[in-house]
Fold this sequence. Notes:
The structure is a single chain. The chain is built from seven helices and 18 strands. The chain is an alpha/beta fold. It has one domain (22-37, 45-372). The protein has a six-stranded mixed β-sheet, with helices on both faces. It has a four-stranded mixed β-sheet with strand order 3-2-14-13, with no helix packed on it. Strands 10-16-15-12 form a four-stranded mixed β-sheet, with no helix packed on it. Strand 2 (42-45) and strand 3 (51-54) form a beta hairpin.
Amino acid sequence: xxxxxxxxxAAATGPVPNxxxxxxxxxxxxxxxxxxxxxxxITAIAPDGTLTVTKFEPAKAPDADCxxxxxxxxxxxxxxxxxxxxxxxxxxxxxxxxxxxxxCRTFAPLYRQVTxxxxxxxxxxxxxxxxxxxxxxxxxxxxxxxxANDNDGRPFVIIGHSQGTxxxxxxxxxxxxxxxxxxxxxxxxxxxxxxxxxxxxxxGGDFQxxxxxxxxxxxxxxxxxxxxxxxxxxxxNSRFGKTDQAGMEVxxxxxxxxxxxxxxxxxAFAASRSWEMARDTGPWVKDANISTGYVALPGxxxxxxxxxxxxxxxxxxxxxxxxxxxxxxxxxxxxxxxTVLQDWGLHLIDVSLAYDDLVALVPQQLKxxxxxxx
Length: 374
């Protein structure tokens, strides 16, 4: 009877909350060497193979903060990850967040996410147990710690991808949307997961009062998209870009042209090509070594938001030239064995496709925010 009581009490208390006052529970925090303070220089590869290196300049005393929640990356063998930062967590910071240090102080909490192991098990019909509230409670705790101890009234951007976007979507709806803290939000960059909005509107759906961003000089709004190749739009069974909720559609805002239309993308890819399950598209450039952590491919990619055949998504055009030394493609497709999973689109590189466009929005949104306070 005593043992049963102890076990019941343990079950009722649940997992122990993380102490986000400890530096070890953050992948990135200001004023420390961490996953965000890697070399962030970038090599632009011209179509003729010419390489141009641009040195990264971290922001000095930036006025804004960026708070990032990473996607499903953990290789831990359990349903939820532990709180140890492994290579995969550090790599995704490089692939999606570290370059935001050019414009803001960077905050990225570790959290006990639902693992890649659990996702694969689910996809193969052999699901393993995972606590799908634990990941959110960790992110919420980290957010509240940031607000109480680090924010000090500063404007902020929240940034997420995939699982991270799902968690931030809930955080925005429950903790920010329509509340006083919303006046400090420059934007929510919620990439790689469906964000619903009322058809033909810029507000309503997942958020009651937070609109979509419709121009770069706007604050307090949402930047969101799911990406697909122009040549491979969302199929009938697509995971992204479609909804069956009446009166709703999946929101799409092109960070390279928030007002609409097609525009070149300022991509920044991790030079290491470290995407798990990605299709191999060969080297970035023939007969040349890339010495930087990032690669840019000017002129190769452009995109526009498309709403057709029941899907709303960022349609990405790849304009390679077959006889030049630069790559003619990008490795964003999800592959299992030799099969490309069309229902995932370019999910693996959602952020990389427009990485520097997203970073460039921060100072413009900050300018709009400051103007609105005068």
